[in-house]
Design a protein that fits this description.
With 266 residues, the chain is an alpha+beta fold. It is built from 8 helices and 15 strands.
Length: 266
C-alpha cells in the first residue's frame, strides 16, 4: 500500500482464529506453544532415555565384552591364573576352557576342590572384604579365555545391574548346592560311586546344553584327590568302567551316559 509515493508498513493485524506471533510466525489459537524451553526438555528427556537404555547391559553382554574394570585374559594349558596367597582383587569369568581349583597344605600336600568350565566364575570370594588373599590356586587345564573383572567393578555391577546380580546369585546358590552334594557324596557313597559322579560332573551331565563327553586329559592322581581315595583304587575302577562300556579310556577320556547307572544304582 502506497501513501504519497512512500511504502508504508503494514500494521500487525488480528484475524479470527489466528494470532500473529513475533517474527512473522503464526499459529492457530488454542494450539500449544512450542517454546524453546519445552522443546529442549523433550529432547533432553528423549536423549536421557536413550543413554540409559545404552548403559544397561544384559548379563551376556557384560560378561562377553571388555570395558571399565574388565579385560580379556588368555591362558595356556597348565598356566596359573592365580595362586594361593595372592591378593584377592578380581573375579574371573570363564568364557572358554576348563580350570582346576586346588589348595595346598603347609606341608605341600595338594587337594583338588573343584573343576570349572565355561560359564563359571572363579575367585568370587574376593568380593568379601574379609577375604584379602586367595585361599586356593586356579590353573588352566586347557587353553582358556577368561574375563577378568576388577573387584570394584564387580561390586558396582552387583549393586547397579539387577539382571547381572540375579545371574551371579544363581551361580553362587548352584555352587553352594554342589558343595553340599560333594559333602554328602563323601560321607555316604563308596569310592566307586564317587568316582562315577566325578566323571559325570566333569562331562557336565545334568548341566544345560549337550554334555561334553570328551574330558580334557586328567591324571589319575588328580581324580584320586577329587574323589578322596588312592590312585590304585581309581585305576581299578577306571579299568572296570572301561570293560563295562561306561567310559572310553585310550589317550582321551570319553564318558558315556551309561555311567549314570553306577550313580543311580543303590
Amino acid at each position: 500500500m502506497k501513501t504519497n509515493g512512500i511504502l508504508s508498513r503494514t500494521k500487525t493485524s488480528f484475524e479470527p482464529g489466528m494470532l500473529t506471533a513475533k517474527g512473522g510466525m503464526r499459529r492457530k489459537s488454542g494450539q500449544p506453544s512450542l517454546s524453546p524451553s519445552s522443546s529442549l526438555a523433550k529432547l533432553l528427556k528423549s536423549n536421557g532415555a536413550s543413554l540409559r537404555a545404552e548403559a544397561v547391559l544384559t548379563p551376556e553382554a557384560f560378561l562377553a565384552k571388555t570395558g571399565l574394570g574388565r579385560k580379556i585374559v588368555n591362558t595356556e594349558k597348565k598356566q596359573s591364573i592365580f595362586s594361593q596367597g595372592d591378593a584377592a582383587n578380581a573375579v574371573f569369568y570363564i568364557q572358554k576352557g576348563k580350570v582346576k581349583l586346588t589348595v595346598f597344605s603347609k606341608r605341600g600336600k595338594e587337594a583338588t576342590i573343584a573343576m570349572l568350565g565355561a560359564g563359571d566364575f572363579v575367585g568370587e570370594e574376593c568380593i568379601a572384604a574379609i577375604q584379602p588373599q586367595r585361599m586356593a590356586t586356579a590353573v588352566a587345564l586347557t587353553p582358556c579365555t577368561l574375563l577378568k573383572i576388577e573387584r570394584e567393578e564387580m561390586v558396582r555391577a552387583l549393586h547397579e545391574e539387577k539382571a547381572f546380580s540375579e545371574v551371579f546369585v544363581a551361580f553362587l546358590l548352584a555352587r553352594n548346592v554342589r558343595i553340599q552334594e560333594d559333602l554328602i557324596d563323601q560321607l555316604f557313597n563308596s569310592s566307586e560311586k564317587r568316582l562315577a559322579r566325578t566323571l559325570l560332573l566333569l562331562a557336565r551331565f545334568g548341566k544345560e546344553g549337550v554334555p561334553e563327553t570328551v574330558i580334557p586329559k586328567i591324571s589319575q592322581e588328580t581324580l584320586a584327590e577329587m574323589v578322596g581315595t588312592t590312585r590304585s583304587r581309581v585305576s581299578f575302577f577306571m579299568n572296570r568302567f572301561r570293560k563295562l562300556g561306561f567310559i572310553e579310556y585310550n589317550g582321551i577320556l570319553k564318558v558315556n551316559s551309561a555311567l549314570l547307572n553306577v550313580v543311580l544304582h543303590d
